[in-house]
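Table S2 (text version). Query chain:
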Amino acid sequence: MSWFKKLGPESRSLETIHGHFQEMLRDAKTVVDKALDGLLGRADAKALHAEVFATDERVNQAATAVRRELVVHGTVHGTETFPSLLVIMSLVKDAERIGDYGKNLLLLGEQSLQLGSAADRAALERLGARISKGLGIARELYATEDAEGGEAFMKESKAITAELDALVNAGLAATGENAAARVLALRFLKRVQTHASNIVSSLVLPLDQIDFYDEKR
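Corresponding structure-token output:
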């Protein structure tokens, strides 16, 4: 379900909130995409620094704008809207964190650290591509309120995070090499994926279970 549309019939403030949130998701995906380019050597990570950090600043500014609109909305329309407002606050934080972990990926790329064997790098590239594609899908699912698509997204997300966990465990158990950079990259990618799934979870889960999609049940 759309928590934006459950806030009430007042269209102007809701459209403003929705628009800012969509901007956040779009820019957060750009941060991750550019960071992956730098991490994987498809572009000069240091040359991307200013662009990536400026894009993430737009994410932060949009988050501030959404929070401002939510406070105004709650003040005007009363306490009955508060549960939904709190949900949106949580989703905004998820979008912010996607940008933050994207920056972490770029900063890792700026160190020009070894990411392992050709197979290790190929796995990173493949999973990064799946996660990037998923960020675009998450934005579209939220815009269209596609609960069925949300269910499919969350199943795919669990498969991705399971593979990331397996690669992290392999890196931690590796001997004769320094796998720290690879393990960090995998963990950052997992956090990007989990925050995207938290956003999509608002389409399919009860309010009290949002943000806990990846907990074992």
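Notes on Table S2: The two ends are 22 Å apart (CA to CA). Confidence is low (pLDDT under 50) at residues 212-217.
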